């Protein structure tokens, strides 16, 4: 599949801030930016739900960083798939 790509210049501190939003090492900046855009759109639509969602995302990120998660393979085994 061919994708149009453009180059965007960022200050190093902006890149560092984006790095903090990465959920896994190989997550692309495109994925991070799209995720942030989705959060912003959701915040505008339903602010009350958005603050709860942001809290849950932060909690999940902490669990992932602490290694408290189930891999896809482990989940498949547990579910017998």
* Radius of gyration of CA atoms, rounded to a whole number: 16 Å
Q: Which blocks of ≥5 consecutive residues have pLDDT under 50?
A: none
- Sheet bearing the most strands, described? none
Give the oligomeric state: single chain
End-to-end CA span: 29 Å
Number of helices: 4
Order of helices and strands: HHHH
What overall form do the CA principal axes indicate? extended
Global structural class: mainly alpha
**How much is the average pLDDT?**
85
Q: Percentage of helical residues? A: 55-70%
Strand content: under 5%
Describe the model.
The chain has 81 residues and is an all-alpha fold. The chain has a domain at 49-81. 64% of the residues lie in helices and 0% in strands. The protein has four helices and no strands. The protein has helices spanning 12-19, 29-45, 47-65, 72-79. α2 packs antiparallel against α3. The chain starts with 11 loop residues before the first helix and ends with a helix. The mean pLDDT is 85.
Which short descriptors sum up this protein?
about 80 residues, mainly alpha, extended
List the helices and strands and how they pair.
Layout: H1 12-19, H2 29-45, H3 47-65, H4 72-79
Helix pairs in contact: 2-3
Task: Please summarize what this structure is.
The chain has 81 residues and is mainly α. It contains four helices and no strands.
